[in-house]
Amino acid sequence: MTTATAPPSAPPPPKAAPPVPAPGPGRRGGVRGTRGWVAACFLLPALALLGALVLYPIGYSVYRSLFDASGTSFAGADNYQEVFTDARIRTALRNNIVWVVVAPTVATALGLVFAVLTERVRWGTAFKLVVFMPMAISMLAAGIIFRLVYEQDPDRGVANAVWVGIHDTFAAPAPYPGARPRPNTGLKEAGGGAYTTWAAVRAGSPVLMPLVAVKPEDVAGAKDAAPARPAAGKITGTVWLDFTRGGGGAPGAIDRGEKGLAGVTVEAVRDGRTVASATTASDGTFTLPPAADGALLRLPAANFATAYNGVDWLGPALVTPSIIGAYIWMWAGFAMVLIAAGLAGVPRELLEAARVDGANEWQVFRRVTVPLLAPVLAVVVVTLMINVLKIFDLVYIIAPGSSLDNANVLALQLYQSSFGTNVNQGVGSAIAVLLLLLVTPVMVMNLRRIRRERKERR
């Protein structure tokens, strides 16, 4: 006898999910959905600040640029016409173009080089810290620092101290800069800073060549001058400082205690040609060969040339490049840090694959590293372009009054037109509007780049 078994019961059907309520009049669907009045409460303070600090000043600047200096008479486009016809403002506009082209490019290039090279340097982190450190300094402090760096006096300005040191390494300075003969003592000017004897010299008669206006430090430790002894067939003489400390002594005569001038070049000149030359000894004496008999003696200008004082960094010709150099010193570290962050995200396998394929380091850098860093480089360049368009404080602090017009930029001219001696806030507002128009294309380009990157990530 068999027993029938019941088939297994089917599992119960799943419960239906509760219906999602449709969004009502005060509710919006989606993950970011919220009530409209709540969003408005959060956005209103930001919109109020945006309007008060950005929109209103822009609108008022455009409005004010259409009126004259007093602000009562409508001027139309006269202020904008003055912006493009005034010589100072045109200089400022030209300098701004130089700033936009040079400063971001050089700062970004240096940042790229620093970021790539410090990857393989043992002390790369310390180097990056040193390069980035100027970013912690305000523009005011940096301007004061570089105003001192560019001082004309080599004893105070670092730039000229280095430059003069390099120059004097290859060109020896004059032994007695600024010295000159004592008047009415047998020497006359020969042009170009040189001096010659009045008459031809003869062998057997020592020649006296007294000088004055020699700096005390140039004869510190010098020996006393000695009268030259006659030599058969030769020309002898003495070059000395014809000055007796404490007074006394006879002009044109070697008195006790007067110092000989060593290292002075003496030339014998006949018919415009140098036939012989000699250099004075420590006691100021010199001896010329018989060929000098009957010739004029000349002290070349090289003996008295003014000491090389370096480069006029803040002069009209170099003031703008010098200030750009100070800006690059500050912002190259900023570029380096951003580029180094982008470099850290570059896939190393791509670089290794390029090296395996036979590319050298320069080819890897130029054809792999730089293209992969192109978005980061674009961010750095655009940021620095916006920054240099409004540069003001560095120019105002570093440029001296004599070169301020040559270093002028639009932001500085805006300040001078609006609050300087000849106040014309109509022209100042027109310059502000021009600056806004110059910055706008860069901002639009930056926004398009950001949107394009977002689409690529999606």
Automatic annotation (TrEMBL):
This protein's UniProt keywords: Cell membrane, Membrane, Transmembrane, Transmembrane helix, Transport
Pfam entry (one): BPD_transp_1
Region called Disordered, residue ranges: 1-28
Primary location group: membrane
Biased composition (Pro residues): 8-24
PROSITE patterns linked to this entry: ABC_TM1
Positions of the ABC transmembrane type-1 domain: 93-446
Subcellular location: Cell membrane
Name this protein carries in UniProt: Sugar ABC transporter permease
Organism: Streptomyces luteosporeus
